[in-house]
Amino acid sequence: MMDRLLELLNTDARMSTEALAVMLDTTEEDVKNRIARYEADGVIRGYKPLLDYEKIDTQYVEALIELRVTPKKDFGFEEIAQKISRYQEVDSVYLMSGGYDLHVRVVGKTFKDVAMFVAQRLAILDGVVSTATHFVLSHYKDQGVLMTDMPGDERGNISL
Amino acid sequence: MDLENMLSQRTVSLKPSGIRKFFDIANEMEGVIALGVGEPDFKTPYSVRRAGIENLQHGQTRYSANAGLMELRRAICDYMLRKFNLSYDKKTEVLVTVGGSEAIDLAIRAFLNPGDEVLIPEPCFVCYAPIVTLTSGVPVAIPTHEKDHFRLTPEQLEAAITPKTKMLVLPYPNNPTGAVMRREHLEAIAEVLRRHDIIVLSDEIYAELTYNGRHCSIAELPDMKERTIVVNGFSKTFAMTGWRLGFAAGPAAAIKQMTKIHQYAIMCAPTTSQYAAIEALDHCEENICQMREEYNSRRRFVVDGFNKMGLHTFEPEGAFYVFPCIRSTGLSSEKFCEELLYSKKVAVVPGNAFGDSGEGFIRVSYSYSVQHLKTALQRIAEFIEERKENQP
Ligand SMILES: Cc1ncc(COP(=O)(O)O)c(C=O)c1O
């Protein structure tokens, strides 16, 4: 079973160690140590805010790209996946089962930026057989968090 | 015709809670950070909802047997045995009702003769006394105190018993205090009851939400099952408030009379809900554990939060409420809640809504996300601080 500490951090990574200690019925020291160990072991790889780009005045476009790849002898998908991961424009890279091999999320300022990146940097890589680019139009939910404003509490404010 | 004059005097005379007004104001106000509701924030487990949907798709939409679907009664008996060591006969000793609420109503109606007294430890959920009154009985409040962890003590019980005492309501785990009665406390109560002819109405609707150890039912103790009606339900355990389903378990002679009233007044509990409830009892243990664990983290967070802001808070061991003492602010419960609502838009329930002995306390529900609780606690802390500063 997953450590309850990780579950709590997963709902709110900014919870203070003090609050976490209270909720887990342990000491702050213990919480700090456990988090430090998770960080050292690479279980916790980072902390980021979940941004709603629709509310930020900036140019922002993202695309999900399906890549078909010919795996390399002895290396499989590893080598090309690592290579793609190193591009700054690439936000995430997943190895997939099913109809294609690598799922790549690319972020740029404009549609043209992203399209150029795919055509000139990804598609030409050794081993890439084909690409299919899907632009993202709207986020409804990200990482378990609703990106639309919550409707009111149907339970009302007060009841016995 | 003057309609007012036509209405039942007894119904009209039921205590018109002054708090109703506060409730209306709180529920109409926009932008409130509420800590006021008495139901889970979780959704009913998906498999239970699916069971309801499938049953509707199959068109199983008729009345069930009066006492409830036999398969559900089987599941209830299995559950009671598994969880509380209580063995009941599915054919004669359980009744499926419209929420725990109906089970409480039936149990009171099945036992009371005019003038019979019913002992009710307070603060408690609000339904018992009015039902007793409507049944021509006499509700007798027994105030419980924080120094006793809001438990009923055997001395208090003994002192309240008269020749007219017919029934004791045992509302633990308790709404609003979060108090529980552990086995040793129940044993002391049982010791007194065995010497008298008194029926126990044990409202165990929050049994699964017990945090330091397993819930113990008074019916589990020697000689107690034969004089106890256990009320339980699906609302809190499985986050199924809107399905309106509960049950009563007890001696066959009592269940028989309760079923008779139920048959005349209700016919049967909602059939769709009954089918869904079978899934809940048979397959949702993991969901219960998850919800309990989540509530438990919130419980510790909220108790700690109140104590840190200087509102002394007793450690509740059950349900999903904390019951901070607000006497240090110099305000009455209602005044505290009103001022908090108007100045900080945080809604909590005045303790005296649950009986006079709740005065000096507020009920805070933690059936909210930690994020929500955090914001609300911050606002309450500000409220307390600002009051301190403004005091001479
Ligand atoms: C102590 C107690 N008993 C019974 C009930 C009734 O629950 P239901 O009728 O939904 O089963 C409630 C609901 O708030 C309660 O708090």
What does this structure look like?
- The complex is a heterodimer of chains A (160) and B (392).
- Chain A is 31% helix and 21% strand.
- Chain A is built from five helices and six strands, in the order αααβαββαβββ.
- Chain A has helices spanning 4-11, 17-24, 28-40, 78-85, 111-122; strands spanning 61-69, 90-95, 102-108, 128-135, 141-142, 145-146.
- In chain A, the strands form two sheets. Chain A has a four-stranded antiparallel β-sheet.
- In chain A, a hairpin with a 6-residue loop joins strand 2 (90-95) and strand 3 (102-108).
- The two termini of chain A are 36 Å apart.
- Chain B has helices at residues 3-6, 9-13, 19-28, 46-57, 70-84, 99-111, 128-134, 154-160, 183-193, 252-265, 271-283, 285-308, 333-344, 370-390, and strands spanning 33-34, 94-97, 117-122, 138-143, 165-170, 199-203, 228-233, 246-249, 321-322, 346-347, 349-350, 362-365.
- By secondary structure, chain B is of the alpha/beta class.
- Chain B has two domains: 3-43 and 286-386, Aspartate Aminotransferase, domain 1 (Alpha-Beta Complex), CATH 3.90.1150; 46-284, 3-Layer(aba) Sandwich (Aspartate Aminotransferase, domain 2).
- Chains A and B meet through helix 1 and helix 2 of A and helix 3, helix 12 and helix 14 of B.
- Pyridoxal-5'-phosphate binds next to helix 6 of chain B.
- Pyridoxal-5'-phosphate is lined by residues 38, 99-101, 125, 171, 175, 203, 205, 233, 235, 241, 246 of chain B.
CATH class division of the largest domain in chain A: Alpha Beta
* Number of alpha- plus pi-helical segments of chain A: 5
Remind me, CATH topology of the largest domain in chain B?
A: Aspartate Aminotransferase, domain 2
Q: Helical stretch count of chain B?
A: 14
> Major β-sheet of chain A, in short?
4 strands, antiparallel
SS-based class of chain B: alpha/beta
Major sheet strand order of chain B: 2-8-7-6-5-3-4
Which helices and strands, and how do they pair?
The complex is a heterodimer of chains A (160) and B (392).
Chain A (H helix, E strand, L loop, with lengths): L3 H8 L5 H8 L3 H13 L20 E9 L8 H8 L4 E6 L6 E7 L2 H12 L5 E8 L5 E2 L2 E2 L14
Antiparallel strand pairs in A: 1-3, 1-4, 2-3, 5-6
Helix pairs in contact in A: 2-3
Chain B lengths: L2 H4 L2 H5 L5 H10 L4 E2 L11 H12 L12 H15 L9 E4 L1 H13 L5 E6 L5 H7 L3 E6 L10 H7 L4 E6 L12 H11 L5 E5 L24 E6 L12 E4 L2 H14 L5 H13 L1 H24 L12 E2 L10 H12 L1 E2 L1 E2 L11 E4 L4 H21 L2
